[in-house]
Design a protein that fits this description.
It is a single chain. This protein is α+β, with helices and mostly antiparallel strands. It has one domain (about 5-130): Nucleoside Triphosphate Pyrophosphohydrolase (Alpha-Beta Complex), CATH 3.90.79.10. It is about 20% helix and about 40% strand. It contains three helices and nine strands, in the order ββββαβαβββαβ. It has helices at about 45-60, 75, 130-135, and strands at about 5-15, 20-25, 35, 35-40, 60-70, 80, 85-100, 110-115, 145. Strands 1, 4, 5, 6, 7 and 9 form a six-stranded mixed beta sheet that branches. A hairpin with a 5-residue loop joins β2 and β3. The protein is globular, with a radius of gyration of 14 Å.
């Protein structure tokens, strides 16, 4: 197992458009595509963190619709930053709908933001994000714990 420097509560938010395409962000920190995500700040609820992260990274206002799952397996949840720091995220993944704002990638956290068909995701996507998307597309209705 990789060295883990800290553990951190994380949030991820899956947003579909009317054509069932998923919104992805090309992250400035690692140059990879992924579902809008980040960490919970001290004193913040999971839902507030999720809504804040989406606004910061995409310019969109969202309403959380449902919990997709909780992800904590170190095999997929340890994120290695370019500075060498390894963070084990315990991520709560939600589905949300757009209620306002405008798609915008002027955030210093985002190189690009756009919608993709789930069957045509970019090759340079963060490793754990296709699992989250597959769980979001699953119709069993119950949240996953992985």
């Amino acid at each position: 197992m990789k060295r883990i420097d800290e553990i951190c509560p994380g949030v991820a938010v899956i947003i579909f458009d009317a054509d069932k395409r998923v919104l992805l962000q090309k992250r400035a920190d690692v140059g990879l595509w992924g579902i809008p995500s980040g960490h919970v700040e001290p004193g913040e609820t999971l839902l507030n963190a999720a809504v804040r992260e989406v606004m910061e990274e995409t310019g969109l206002e969202v309403r959380i619709k449902r919990l997709i799952g909780i992800y904590s397996d170190p095999a997929s949840q340890v994120f290695c930053y370019p500075n060498g720091k390894n963070v084990h995220f315990v991520t709560s993944c939600f589905e949300a709908e757009i209620v306002g704002g405008a798609l915008d990638c002027t955030s210093p956290e985002s190189l690009d933001v756009k919608f993709f068909s789930p069957s045509c995701l970019p090759k340079n996507i963060l490793a754990m994000h296709p699992r989250w998307l597959a769980d979001a597309l699953c119709s069993n209705g119950a949240p996953f714990i992985r």
